[in-house]
Each structure stands twice: as C-alpha cells, then as structure tokens.
Write a structure and sequence with these properties.
Elements: E1 6-12, E2 18-21, H1 22-31, H2 40-53, H3 59-71
Antiparallel strand pairs: 1-2
Helix pairs in contact: 1-2, 2-3
Length: 91
C-alpha cells in the first residue's frame, strides 16, 4: 500500500481537518502533543498506520486506530440491545 491509500472510513480531526488517507492519518498523529504519544491507543494507531503504509498490516486496523484516538476509548458504542451480560437471554 501507499500513503495515498484511502482509509476505510473518513474522520474529521478535532481541528476540523478531514482524515481520508494514510498520509492524512500520519499528519494528524504527528500534530498530537508529545504527551499523548506515550498513550497506548496512540502508540497502537501509529504502528497500525505505519504497517498499513508499508503493506505489512490491514488498512482496517489503521482506520480503527485513528478512530480510537479521535473518539477516545469509548468511540464505538454498541446498541443498548447488545450490552447485556453474556449468557443472559433476550426477553
């Protein structure tokens, strides 16, 4: 893959800039404060973006990593019907 490869989902950065490609994702990650670079989610996103750009990893992981950095740990929430404890029957 290349840096111009589009992500599987587009995002808008907190500053309002679109994140459509691996290059956009890289630029976004580089603009984060250095203090955030030590966070596990950011480290995982950086690694996933680099691996996707080098053709060593799936584009979906890079997209998910960027989404998690932008939306926080609870960025993707399941519908209420899916949040029941395991083993509990649907009534």
């Amino acid at each position: 893959m290349r840096w111009s490869e589009p992500l599987t989902k587009q995002f808008i950065s907190p500053k309002g800039q679109p994140i459509k490609t691996l290059a956009d994702a890289r630029a976004f990650l580089l603009t984060l404060p250095k203090s955030r670079h030590a966070e596990d989610d950011v480290q995982a996103a950086i690694e996933a973006v680099l691996m996707a750009a080098e053709g060593r990893g799936p584009l979906l992981h890079a997209t998910a990593g960027i989404g998690r950095v932008i939306n926080g740990r609870s960025g993707i929430q399941l519908p209420k019907s899916s949040r029941r404890p395991r083993g509990e029957r649907k009534s």
